[in-house]
Amino acid sequence: MKRDRFAELLRVVMASAPEEIDCDQFLERVAAFLESVGPDGEVPPDLRAVAQHLEVCPECKEELDALLELHRGES
Ligand SMILES: [Zn+2]
After folding, report:
1. CA of 38 to the centre of ligand 1 (A)
2. Which one of 22, 29, 51, 67 is least enclosed by Cβ atoms within 10 Å?
3. From the CA of 7, how far away is ligand 1's center (Å)?
């Protein structure tokens, strides 16, 4: 990969992901995330980092799936 191509790629990634969160921050926000996601699966802008973390962290995705199961059981 050429250097300028890489720089361009990095710029695009940084622009689309202004904020990256780790697993602790994910867990802090996951409740708000569950409450805020619309029925059509739309994610509010301030919680995009949470959705983005799911893309890169299978462990937290599993955690969320477990939480969703719990929610379904309650209703
Ligand atoms: Zn994680």
Report:
1. 22
2. 22
3. 26
Is this structure's pTM higher than 0.70? no
CA 52 to ligand 1 centroid distance, Å: 10
Q: How many CB atoms lie within 10 A of CB 48?
A: 15
Q: Give the tokens for residue 4.
A: 């300028």
The per-residue pLDDT string of the chain (75 residues; one tens digit each, 9 = 90 and over) reads 677 888 887 776 666 655 789 999 999 999 888 888 877 878 888 888 998 899 999 999 999 999 888 877 765
Q: CA nearest 57: which of 9, 28, 20? A: 20
The rounded distance, in Å, linking the Cα atoms of 19 and 52 is: 9
